Amino acid sequence: GDPEVGEMGLAAVPGRQPAFRQGLAAAVQYAKEVRCPRIHLLAGRVPRGADRAAVAAEMETTFMENLRYAADLLAQEDMIGLVEPINNRITDPRYYLNTPHQAAAILEKVGRPNLKLQLDLFHCQIMDGNLSQNLETYFPLTGHLQIAQVPGRHEPDSPGELNFPYLFKLLESLSYTGYVGCEYAPKGDTLEGLGWLRSYWESRGLQHGGTSKATE
């Protein structure tokens, strides 16, 4: 979409289907060039001035139609489409897709195996909390994870509500093998801000890169 006019994705925005398909085609080409197998299909915002409840059904129908189209296109490239709930309490009041429950229900209706949930624990905590149970519940649908401390959206070891060492151990117990995206705003220098990861590895008896000291 066009950020200058307030768009943030188009997948659920009625009347913007041609632009969504054009953007998806471009995204696939970029993804192929950088060998990235996953593409985030942003749902988009409730149209300005519209009542969320009044347009909910039309937006869901549009979203599902676009997701099916995207899934079929991505399947040809052996790619996965991701949908991410973004909280509408702090980050984006008009964003259409807000909770893992809403996203999971839509994915179930669409019924495409190469469409997955992009679960950002920052947004999930703000909207629903209950992260342990939500991780276990939605883990089978999850294709990518993202983290940031709440409420500041900084490094995981910054002051906040979330106990990331506990959550990381939970992900290990669930046998999660994918990437964990660090989608936070560093409080200072980016590289210095990654010190939390080195400290976490050391607390687990691991070397830089997550390898065990005992295996050297």
What would the keywords be for this entry?
216 residues; TIM Barrel; five-stranded parallel beta sheet; 8 helices; 42% helix
Task: Describe the protein in words.
Helices cover 42% and strands 10% of the residues. With 216 residues, the chain is of the alpha/beta class. The chain has a single domain (3-25, 33-203), classed as TIM Barrel, CATH 3.20.20. The chain has a five-stranded parallel beta sheet. β4, α6 and β5 form a beta-alpha-beta unit. α1 packs across α2 (52-76) and α2 (52-76) packs across α3 (100-110). The radius of gyration is 18 Å and the shape is globular. 26% of the residues are buried.
| Beta-strand share of residues | 5-15%
**Spatial ordering of strands, largest sheet:** 1-2-3-4-5
Q: Which structural class should the secondary elements be placed in? A: alpha/beta
Q: Which architecture name does CATH use?
A: Alpha-Beta Barrel
CATH homolog superfamily: Divalent-metal-dependent TIM barrel enzymes
Mean pLDDT across every amino acid position: 95
Quaternary form: single chain
Radius of gyration: 18 Å
Residues in helix, %: 40-55%
